[in-house]
Design a protein that fits this description.
By secondary structure, the chain is mostly helical. It is built from two helices and two strands; from the N terminus they run ββαα. The chain has one domain. Strands 1-2 form a two-stranded antiparallel ribbon. A hairpin with a 6-residue loop joins strand 1 and strand 2. Helix 1 runs antiparallel to helix 2. The radius of gyration is 32 Å and the shape is rod-shaped.
Length: about 180
């Protein structure tokens, strides 16, 4: 068994030419010149670094995705609470219109309802504030997520370019 020198995935020797996880060329020639061995070591060091950066960005991306999901769930809950408060407020207004049997009772009910309305408006205002904060946080997380995705794309592009150069170099080596 051999391990990919970049990502450490395990393979059976001489069964595959390229790592299926990171794309590294797994073919080896036993009689490398010292110069070529040195160049390969430099390339391997670079590839390991890129692989680690790519894994870090992937992990960060998944963390941001999780945070975004949590914010979206919190926003959904806040909106549900807001809708519930609005429904309760509507019901109170209906009750206010129905219960006008006597002026004294109506006045007492109105005074009581006014206090409740202030409490509901206060709660509604707090919920609106939470919604705005969650929306702002969601926008920030979406921006962070977009930046992380752009970084991942950049790293992937560099890896692809490197692999293309490696393939082209391999073709030229065969021609010689």
């Amino acid at each position: 068994m051999i391990h990919c020198p970049v990502c450490s995935k395990e393979y059976i020797k001489n069964k595959v030419n390229f790592c299926t996880n990171c794309g590294w060329d797994l073919t080896t020639l036993e009689e490398f010149s010292e110069f070529y061995t040195q160049k390969e070591t430099q390339k391997l060091t670079w590839a390991k670094g890129m692989w680690q950066k790519w894994q870090f960005q992937q992990e960060k991306y998944h963390q941001l995705q999780s945070q975004l999901s949590q914010c979206q769930e919190s926003l959904k809950q806040s909106e549900e609470k807001n809708a519930q408060c609005k429904l309760e407020l509507q019901q109170l207004n209906k009750d206010k219109n129905i219960n006008n049997a006597s002026l004294n009772q109506l006045q007492l009910q109105i005074d009581q309802m006014q206090l409740e309305l202030e409490l509901y408006f206060s709660n509604n205002s707090q919920l609106q504030s939470e919604i705005e904060q969650n929306k702002s946080r969601q926008l920030q997380l979406e921006n962070d997520l977009s930046q992380a995705q752009n970084k991942i794309n950049e790293y992937q592009s560099e890896i692809d370019q490197y692999n293309q150069r490696k393939k082209k170099k391999s073709c030229w080596d065969w021609d010689e």
